[in-house]
């Protein structure tokens, strides 16, 4: 997959991309991420990307010209790119949205806003979709862009060493994850559940499913309603509900 990030703080973005799984995925060519400095597409010697808002008001507004210039130079064909604006006004990003975007054949371009807002004409003429990562306001769009790229990349074959890593992730199967343990078996009076040491894969699978359902019921019960329960899942869930009474 190919991503581009348009930002006025490229160093911030590079710092994350040059670490861990993202670094390996980019180096291997499984994904491509280009980072573009919006200031390189300005018209004045000061490389200004913002100005005062018409009508007054607090804060500054990001200018339309740089966004149009970079789009017309790098992505002149609308059919070849999907431009996403990171915005608290956008559609809430979730695992389902990530799975949809992971099948995108076009280059995904992220416009990272700063200051009070972006000139509305950018949204009207260039942006294909606005996306939010939560009902809160961040300083800029860089962190949301990285979050979205990270989540999508985990779904791309070859990014993770073991495909089961994303298949068993929370939300990928519709439920929260089950508890995980590693050595030592005993630690400060706490021990690993015996079933995980039994070698009985059928019992381990059942235990993990029960723990996954339990965690979801306790922490995110609304996810249960959207989950397609198998008969054995419903039986486990009924027992868990009885235990809570």
Automatic annotation (TrEMBL):
Q: Where is the tRNA methyltransferase TRMD/TRM10-type domain?
A: 1-225
* Keyword terms: Cytoplasm, Methyltransferase, S-adenosyl-L-methionine, Transferase, tRNA processing
| Subcellular location, record wording | Cytoplasm
- Give a GO cellular-component term: cytosol
Can you state which reaction this protein catalyses?
guanosine(37) in tRNA + S-adenosyl-L-methionine = N(1)-methylguanosine(37) in tRNA + S-adenosyl-L-homocysteine + H(+)
Report the InterPro entries cross-referenced here.
Answer: Alpha/beta_knot_MTases (IPR029028), tRNA_m1G_MeTrfase_C_sf (IPR023148), tRNA_m1G_MeTrfase_TrmD (IPR002649), tRNA_m1G_MTases_N (IPR029026), tRNA_MeTrfase_TRMD/TRM10 (IPR016009)
Primary localization class, coarse: cytoplasm
Q: Which Pfam families match?
A: tRNA_m1G_MT (PF01746)
What's the EC number here? 2.1.1.228
Annotated binding of S-adenosyl-L-methionine, by residue: 113, 133-138
CDD domains, alphabetized: TrmD-like (cd18080)
Q: Which GO terms describe its biological process?
A: tRNA N1-guanine methylation
- What Gene Ontology molecular function terms does this protein carry? tRNA (guanine(37)-N1)-methyltransferase activity
Functional description taken from the UniProt entry: Specifically methylates guanosine-37 in various tRNAs.
Family per record:
Belongs to the RNA methyltransferase TrmD family.
Self-association state and partner proteins as the record states = Homodimer.
Protein name as it appears in the record: tRNA (guanine-N(1)-)-methyltransferase
Species this protein is from? Candidatus Sulfobium mesophilum
């Amino acid at each position: 997959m190919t991503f581009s990030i348009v930002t006025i703080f490229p160093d911030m973005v590079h710092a994350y991309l040059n670490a861990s799984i993202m670094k390996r995925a980019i180096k291997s060519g499984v994904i491509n991420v280009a980072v573009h400095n919006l200031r390189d597409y300005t018209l004045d010697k000061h490389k200004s990307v913002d100005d005062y808002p018409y009508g007054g008001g607090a804060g500054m507004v990001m200018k339309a010209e740089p966004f149009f210039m970079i789009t017309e130079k790098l992505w002149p064909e609308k059919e070849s790119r999907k431009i996403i604006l990171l915005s608290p006004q956008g559609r809430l990003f979730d695992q389902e949205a990530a799975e949809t975007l992971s099948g995108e054949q076009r280059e995904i371009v992220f416009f990272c806003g700063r200051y009070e807002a972006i000139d509305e004409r950018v949204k009207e003429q260039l942006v294909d979709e606005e996306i939010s990562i939560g009902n809160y306001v961040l300083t800029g769009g860089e962190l949301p862009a990285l979050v979205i790229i990270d989540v999508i990349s985990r779904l791309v074959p070859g990014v993770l060493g073991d495909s089961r890593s994303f298949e068993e992730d929370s939300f990928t199967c519709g439920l929260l994850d089950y508890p995980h343990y590693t050595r030592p078996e005993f630690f400060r009076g706490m021990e690993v559940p015996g079933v995980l040491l039994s070698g009985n894969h059928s019992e381990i699978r059942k235990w993990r499913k029960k723990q996954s359902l339990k965690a979801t019921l306790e922490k995110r019960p609304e996810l249960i309603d959207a989950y397609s329960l198998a008969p054995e899942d419903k039986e486990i869930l009924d027992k868990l509900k009885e235990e809570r009474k």
